[in-house]
Design brief:
Elements lengths: L3 E8 L6 H17 L4 E3 L11 H7 L7 H13 L2 E10 L8 E8 L5 E6 L5 E3 L5 E3 L12 E2 L5 E4 L8 H9 L2 E5 L6 H19 L2 E4 L3 E3 L5 E3 L3 E3 L5 E4 L6 E8 L1 H9 L13
Parallel strand pairs: 1-2, 2-3, 9-10, 10-11
Antiparallel strand pairs: 1-16, 3-4, 4-5, 6-7, 8-9, 11-14, 12-13, 14-15
Helix pairs in contact: 1-3
C-alpha cells in the first residue's frame, strides 16, 4: 500500500437535470485525470440540484437508471481512476417511503461500485436570513456508517451536514479510515461562518485527511452555495483550497504516513472514558 496519493476535488455548480450534470462534470474529471489524480471526488448532489418539487419528483430515478451516475461510472472505467460521486439524489428501495436517498457512491477504476453511503444527518433548519430548509421532507436518512477500502487506506464516507456530528467521524477513524470525504452543498451564510473550521476540526479530532469537494455559485433552482473546496491534513493544516465558488479542479498531494504521525503525537482515539450524566 502506497503512502502517497494525488487527489483532485471537483467544484461544481450542478444543473437541475442529470444529463446536463454529467456534461458539466465530465471535462473537469478529464482535466483531473490528465493532471495525475489517482482519486477524484465530486460534491454533494452531483447528479442534480433541484429543490422545485414538481421538477424534482419527475427527475429522480434509481441509481442504476440515473444518467449521471451511470455516465460517471463509465468515465471512471475509461480513465481507470477511483471516483467518489460525492452524492447522488436517487430513489431508495422502500416502496412505503417516497423519499429519496442522498447517496455517496465510490467507484473503482473498473467502473464497479465499491461502496455506497446514505447521508445520516439531514439538514432541517431555519436560518436568520429567512431561508428555510427541510431536507427530511425529501431525503430518507441512512442508518449505517461506511469505510470504503482503497489501495491507500480506508476512506470514510460522509455528506455535508454530517460534518457537524463529530461522533460519526470518530467512529470512522476508529473503524479504519485514514481519509474522510465531506462532499457538500453548504449555504453561503453557514459556509462563510463555519465551513473551514468544521473541516479542520474533524481532521484534528480524527487524525485523518479530510477532503471537502463543494457545490458553489447560483443554481437553476434558486439556491446559492458557498464553494471553497479544500483538503485538510491530519494535523489540521489546510493543504489545498479554492478561494471562490466557481467551478474548477483542486489538486492535493496526500502523504498518508502523516496519519500515523498525527495519531502518535496525540493519541486521542485511545483515550475514551465512560461517564455518567449530565
Amino acid at each position: 500500500m502506497s503512502d502517497l496519493l494525488r487527489v483532485a476535488l471537483i467544484q461544481t455548480c450542478t444543473p437541475a437535470e442529470q444529463s446536463a450534470a454529467l456534461a458539466h462534470l465530465e471535462p473537469m474529471i478529464r482535466e483531473a485525470r490528465a493532471g495525475g489524480a489517482q482519486m477524484i471526488l465530486t460534491p454533494e448532489a452531483s447528479n442534480l440540484m433541484e429543490q422545485r418539487k414538481p421538477n424534482r419528483a419527475e427527475r429522480i430515478v434509481r441509481q442504476d437508471d440515473d444518467a449521471c451516475v451511470q455516465g460517471l461510472r463509465a468515465l471512471a472505467a475509461e480513465l481507470q481512476v477511483h471516483l467518489l460521486i460525492g452524492s447522488a439524489i436517487v430513489l431508495q428501495d422502500d416502496p412505503a417511503d417516497p423519499r429519496a436517498a442522498n447517496r455517496s457512491i465510490f467507484v473503482g477504476p473498473d467502473g464497479a461500485v465499491i461502496a455506497t453511503y446514505d447521508k445520516m444527518h439531514v439538514y432541517d433548519v431555519d436560518l436568520p436570513t429567512g431561508e428555510r430548509h427541510r431536507e427530511s421532507e425529501n431525503i430518507r436518512p441512512g442508518e449505517r456508517a461506511v469505510v470504503a477500502p482503497t489501495p491507500w487506506g480506508g476512506l470514510g464516507l460522509t455528506i455535508c451536514y454530517d460534518v457537524r456530528f463529530p461522533h460519526l467521524f470518530r467512529a470512522l477513524a476508529r473503524g479504519g479510515a485514514s481519509m474522510i470525504s465531506t462532499p457538500a452543498a453548504f449555504t453561503v451564510p453557514t459556509g462563510m461562518a463555519h465551513w473551514e473550521i468544521l473541516q479542520r476540526a474533524r481532521a484534528i479530532e480524527t487524525g485523518c485527511f479530510v477532503m471537502a469537494p463543494a457545490q458553489g455559485g447560483s443554481h437553476e433552482d434558486g439556491r446559492k452555495t458557498w464553494g471553497h473546496s479544500m483538503v485538510v491534513a491530519p494535523w489540521g493544516e489546510v493543504i489545498a483550497k479554492l478561494d471562490n465558488d466557481a467551478p474548477g479542479v483542486l489538486f492535493a498531494e496526500l502523504d498518508l504516513s502523516q496519519v500515523e504521525k498525527a495519531r502518535n503525537a496525540i493519541q486521542q482515539l485511545k483515550h475514551d472514558r465512560e461517564f455518567t450524566g449530565p
